[in-house]
Amino acid sequence: MALLALLAPACGRPARSRPTAVQELRLIAAVELAFHASTGRYGEPAELQKAGYLDPQWPRSQGGGHTISCEIAAAGAGFACYADPVRPGGQPYLRVDATQAVRREADRRPGAASEKLPDSP
């Protein structure tokens, strides 16, 4: 799997109008699904941006203290995007994939069977 880390500019405390990590993950999952419906595969965020599926400024923040990254399977067969806390120990680690369920773990990257957020599909 290729790993593409998308680091947002370092800044102090995120403003209230900036997207949260959960919002950023839900956005990239929806974009990946739209791209897949059109092309039959998932794409790297840079490819999604170039094709006009994803805003060139994505991610717009550190997602409330998280760094966003995506892993795309060989030949675009699948994807998982993660929001890792900038400072481990406070915020949870988050994950989304083609199921659109946002999953969390307190101390490590979530897997496909990790706990779903209560409002996830």
Write the layout of secondary structure elements.
Blueprint: E1 2-6, H1 21-39, H2 45-50, E2 66-72, E3 79-85, E4 93-97, E5 103-105, E6 115-116
Antiparallel strand pairs: 1-2, 2-3, 3-4, 4-5, 5-6
What's the oligomerization state? Answer: single chain
Mean pLDDT: 84
**Terminal Cα span:** 25 Å
Shape: globular
Low-confidence stretches: 1-17
What's the number of helices?
2
Number of domains: 1
Which percent range fits the helix content?
Answer: 10-25%
Q: Main sheet, how many strands, which sense, barrel?
A: 6 strands, antiparallel
Structure class = alpha+beta
String of helices and strands:
EHHEEEEE
Structure description:
Strand 2 (66-72) and strand 3 (79-85) form a beta hairpin. The chain has a six-stranded antiparallel beta sheet, with helices on one face. The protein is 21% helix and 24% strand. The protein is built from two helices and six strands, in the order E-H-H-E-E-E-E-E. The chain is an alpha+beta fold and 121 residues long. It has helices at residues 21-39, 45-50; strands at residues 2-6, 66-72, 79-85, 93-97, 103-105, 115-116.
